[in-house]
Amino acid sequence: MKTQSMLIAALASAPAALAHTAFTDFYVDSVPQGDGVAMRMSTNVEHSTAPISSLGSDDMACNVGGSKGVSRVQSVSDGATLSFEIRAWPADASKERLDRGHKGPCAVYLKKVSSAIEDTAAGDGWFKIFEHGYDSSTDRWCSDEVIDNNGLLNVKLPANLERGNYLARPELLALHAANDNDPQFYTGCAQIFLESDGNLVPESTVSIPGYVDYGEPSTSFDIYNKDASTYEMPGPKIAKLTANSAANDASGQTTQTEGQKPAGCLVENANWCGTEVSDYTTEKGCWASAEECWQQAETCFDEAPITGSAGCTLWQTKCQGINDQCTAGNFQGPPNKGKVLAQEKKSIDIGTVLSGGIDSSDVDTTPKSTKKTSAAPTKATSTVSVKEEPKATSTEAAYPTTTDYSSPPIKEVDDSEAEPSEAETPKATSTVHVAPSEAAPAPTAAPELPESSEGGSSCKDGYVCVTVTDIQVVTQYITVTADYNEYRKRDSAHVVRRRHARR
After folding, report:
1. pLDDT class for 19, splitting at 50, 70, 90?
2. What's 198's DSSP letter?
3. What is the pTM of this model?
4. What are the structural domains, with CATH classification, of the chain?
C-alpha cells in the first residue's frame, strides 16, 4: 500500500503530466465582471498558471507582477458574495480548471488600502475572512469542491466592514508535493471598493509574504501517508472583527474616486475599453477615423492579460466596418455610432458558498471608546446629592456591564505577570447620593464624609451615599514579525499560448 502511495506521489510531482491553474476573474453577487477586469494576475504569459516560486517572495501577495495594480476598481456592496474563478487555460473556460491531484485547502484574505490601484500589496495589513480545508465527512478537500463547482470559489464578505478600497486575495494551496518541500500556492487579487456604512475592522493583521513558511505542518503535510483530518490550516486564524472608534478610518474614503469604468466604453477586454472614434464628413476624415480605431485595437492587444483578447477581436470588427465605408465612398460616419458591441453581463448560478467564513451578525459594532468598564469603588474625591424619583418602575445598575473583545490569536500574554501601567490605576471621579428605593440593589457603604457648611454631614438625612468609579483603559498592541527564508524558484511551468490577428 505504501509502495502504491509513493508511486502516486511521484506521478503527482511530474509537472508535464498535470495542469496548474490561475485565478482569472471574479463575480459580484453572481454577476461576472469580465475576464481580467479589476484583477491582478500573473504577468508572465508563458508561465501564468505556475504556482508561486517562493513563499518568501512578494509574489505571494498578488502573484507575479502583482505589485502593480490595474486601471479598474470594482464597486461591491456591503456583505456581497464574491466568486473567484480558476482556469488551467486562462483564456479558455471550457477546459479543465485544476488537475484533481492538486488537493489542498483554500482561503480568502482582505487588505484595506488607501488606493486599490497604487498599493503594492506585499506587506502587513492582510486578514483572513474565509478558509476551508479537508472535510472528513465527505473525504473531500476544498480543491475538490472548487473543481466540481465549475472552478468557482465563493465567499460572502462580512457585513458592516468599513467602506473603502480593498484588495481581495483568493488562495489555493496544492499539497501533492508538499512532502517534498514543494507546497504550491496559487493566488491573485481583485481590486474592489466596498460600499458600506459599517465600522468593523480586524483586531489584528498579518504580512504577506511572511504568514507561512516552508517546513510548517500546513506546508509540508504528506497527503498520501497521513490522516487528512489532522491537517492544520496555513496562516492565521479567521480574523476577529471589532468596531472602529472613529466614524471611518483616517483615509476618509467616503466615495469611490478611482478605477471606474470609463464613460462611453463600447467594448471591454479586461481593463481596456474601446471608445467611439471621431466623426467625419470627408474621405480624409473617414480614413483618419479608421486609423484611430485600429490604433485602439493595437493597444488592446498589447495590454491583453493572460485571459486573452476576445474583446480586441470584437473591436476589430468595428474598425473593419469603417474601412469598408471609406472604400465604398460613404464619408458620413462613423457607422453605428455609439453602439455597444459587448454582451450584457448577466447573473449566473455560482453554486455553493462553502462553510468557513465570518458570521458578522454576532459581532458587536459598538466602538470600544464608548464602552464603560466596571471596577470596585475607591476613595471619593467629591460628592453630589441626587434624589431618586419615587415609585420607580425600573432601576439602572450602578455599574454597567463591560463588553470587551478577546486578544488576537497571535501571541499569548499573561496579564497576571505584567506590571500595571499608571494609566490602568483606578481613579475616583465623583460620589453620587441616591435616595433609597425598594427595587435598587444594596448600596455600597459610603466613606466617612466631611461635615457640611451647616455643621452636619454632607450626606443628608434620608439619603444613601454610594461611590461611582470610572476606569481609563489603555490597550497595548503587539506587532509580531515572522522570519522567512528565500527558496529557489521552480523551473517547471505550464505554458499558455494565445494568438490573435492584428492588422
Report:
1. confident
2. B
3. 0.71
4. 2-243 (2.70.50.70), 265-327 (no CATH), 372-397+420-446+460-478 (no CATH)
